[in-house]
Amino acid sequence: MYVIAYVLFLYLPIAIIPLFSFNNSIQAAFPLSGFTLEWYGSLVGNENLHRAFETSLIVGLSAAFLATAIGVTVGYMEVTGGTRVSQVISGLCRLPILIPGVIVGIALLILVNLAGLGPSRTAIILGHTLVALPTAVVIMRGRFSSLPRSFSEVAMDLGAHEWTTFRRIVLPLAAPAIASSFMLSFLTSFDEFIVAFFLSGTEPTLPLFVWGQLRFPKALPSVMALGTLILLASIVIATAAEIIRRRGASHDELPVTTPRPLPIS
């Protein structure tokens, strides 16, 4: 029973947001006064919302690309190299997940100010790359560890260079994990608030825009409509990433062909 109570405590508040987003009232209270799509329609002509969405999209795609590229490099280096240095680098890349977001945000704010960047879109991209990096490293490290070493060994025995083996054998086999890493890194950046709060200048991300709108009680229904769309997009992206990752893991086995008998002359 306590498990069911915990699940209800965890997900019931989230389920309430879509429910009230269709309520024909500014007040978020029961009983519901009627059904309306007005709050969703109000999002269409909101220019500030469009700019925040554009910023989140650019930041998310850039951070996901950088985090996935670093994750591929670090994960492959740790699995194939196995040296103490590679293990330390991999551990450092996974460390930000254990550090409180406030500490990361303050540290990055000091760093970008010292570097002359200041709070800006570029600073958010760098910050979100750091935040998404543990996810990318964990996914790619797990994928490279699951690949049979015999594939690379056979290719190198046949004369393929190490870079050719990585490009033509390892990368295609790891492609589903790379796609999954990119999607989850994008999702991590798209939903992130604390680091963006410290690093955003005049270009707020979508979570910061939502937080700013909560100061206006009349904007609450539109915020819940926007929150419902963000929740739906997050579920779709996370589900797609997991499906891609599972399908990639299930295709590790090379097709087994029955050897043909040699002709008897």
The helicity comes to: over 70%
- Rounded to an integer in angstroms, the radius of gyration calculated over CA atoms is 24 Å
Regions with little confidence, pLDDT below 50 for 5+ residues: none
**Number of beta-strand segments:** 0
Give me the strand/helix succession. Answer: HHHHHHHHHHH
N-C termini distance: 75 Å
Secondary-structure class = mainly alpha
What's the story with the biggest beta sheet?
none
Query: In what range is the share of β-strand residues?
Result: under 5%
Put simply, the count of helices is 11
What is the overall pLDDT average?
87
Q: Tell the overall outline.
A: globular
Which features does this protein show?
single chain; 265 residues; mainly alpha; 73% helix; 0% strand; globular
Describe the structure concisely for a colleague.
This protein has 265 residues and is mainly alpha-helical. Helices cover 73% and strands 0% of the residues. It has helices at 2-21, 38-41, 47-81, 84-94, 101-114, 121-146, 149-157, 162-191, 194-199, 206-213, 220-249.
Describe this protein's structure.
73% of the residues lie in helices and 0% in strands. The protein has helices at residues 2-21, 38-41, 47-81, 84-94, 101-114, 121-146, 149-157, 162-191, 194-199, 206-213, 220-249. α3 (47-81) runs antiparallel to α4, α3 packs parallel to α6 (121-146) and α3 runs antiparallel to α8. It is globular, with a radius of gyration of 24 Å.
